[in-house]
């Protein structure tokens, strides 16, 4: 059996020194995180905290949100699958090109995906036109900001306009901000309180170059929706080393 091809599979090739299929911080994992993972080695014979209590408290304080808005996962890709399984959209909308895991997750959940093709002459930037593509029947809409693989930030006002369009048709909007820390672009986190159908997806993977440890999270103010997403994860989806690394990352300045 073989898995679908994906970036980061350096194990299939010999002598790979630089992997341009992933977009991690070129400075590598901070030494403070590496040291924390080493220092807690004697704890790795225990099962992880299934609720990520210490990490949850620290991250909620950093993000300025209630703890119950947070759902942790084995990387952002894990959460993308879980939210698709929780919503089970019969139809979803994605921009094209964008991260392939959105469409794959919708397919796994039994749904179909429509693609809104971005304009190459405008740098494949997601603009307010995307909001106009949302239509009745769409039950989930994805928006990667900045988009991958293009690296372009969404045009100002696009996320808010798309969220309004999603609310009108009863769709969940998933905004993937995993690469946002590399930019000076604004987060849409401030819209969470008003819109329970908004999911903001983030990860420690990119900024802290810890792809092998697998730690992602999402923010959602809709208690029922967040609970359903959490329920689709297995009990110990976030390992103890990943939780330790996350706490160490949150202790770093900035």
Properties at a glance:
254 residues, Aspartate Aminotransferase, domain 2, globular, alpha/beta
Number of domains: 1
Q: Could you say which overall geometry the principal axes of the C-alpha atoms support?
A: globular
Helix-strand pattern: HHEHEHEHEHEEEHH
User: What would you give as the CATH superfamily?
Assistant: Type I PLP-dependent aspartate aminotransferase-like (Major domain)
CATH class term: Alpha Beta
Query: Which architecture does the CATH hierarchy give at level 2?
Result: 3-Layer(aba) Sandwich
CATH topology: Aspartate Aminotransferase, domain 2
Give the end-to-end Cα distance, rounded to a whole number of Å. Answer: 43 Å
Major sheet attributes: 7 strands, mixed
Radius of gyration: 18 Å
Question: How would you write the strand order of the largest sheet?
Answer: 1-7-6-5-4-2-3
The residue ranges in which pLDDT falls below 50 over 5 or more consecutive positions are none
How many helix segments?
8
Portion of residues within helices: 25-40%
What can you tell me about this protein's structure?
The protein has 254 residues and is an alpha/beta fold. The protein has one domain: Type I PLP-dependent aspartate aminotransferase-like (Major domain) (Aspartate Aminotransferase, domain 2, 3-Layer(aba) Sandwich), CATH 3.40.640. Helices cover 30% and strands 14% of the residues. It has a seven-stranded mixed sheet with strand order 1-7-6-5-4-2-3, sandwiched between helices. The model has no long low-confidence stretch (mean pLDDT 93).
């Amino acid at each position: 059996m073989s898995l679908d091809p994906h970036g980061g599979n350096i194990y299939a090739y010999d002598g790979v020194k630089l992997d341009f299929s992933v977009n991690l911080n070129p400075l590598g994992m901070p030494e403070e995180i590496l040291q924390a993972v080493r220092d807690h080695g004697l704890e790795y014979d225990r099962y992880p905290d299934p609720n990520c209590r210490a990490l949850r408290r620290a991250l909620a304080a950093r993000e300025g949100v209630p703890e119950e808005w947070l759902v942790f996962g084995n990387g952002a890709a894990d959460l993308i699958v879980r939210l698709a399984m929780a919503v089970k959209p019969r139809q979803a909308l994605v921009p094209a090109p964008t991260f392939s895991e959105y469409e794959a997750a919708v397919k796994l959940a039994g749904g179909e995906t429509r693609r809104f093709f971005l304009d190459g002459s405008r740098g494949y930037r997601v603009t307010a036109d995307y909001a106009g593509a949302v239509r009745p029947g769409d039950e989930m809409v994805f928006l990667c900001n900045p988009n991958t693989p293009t690296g372009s930030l969404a045009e100002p006002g696009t996320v808010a306009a798309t969220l309004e369009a999603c609310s009108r048709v009863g769709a969940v909007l998933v905004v993937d901000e995993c690469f946002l820390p590399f930019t000076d672009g604004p987060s849409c986190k401030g819209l969470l309180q008003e819109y329970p159908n908004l999911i903001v997806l983030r990860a420690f993977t990119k900024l802290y170059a810890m792809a092998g440890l697998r730690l992602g999270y999402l923010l959602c103010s809709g208690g029922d929706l967040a609970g359903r997403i959490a329920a689709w994860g297995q009990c110990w989806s976030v390992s103890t080393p990943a939780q330790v690394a996350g706490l160490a990352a949150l202790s770093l300045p900035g």
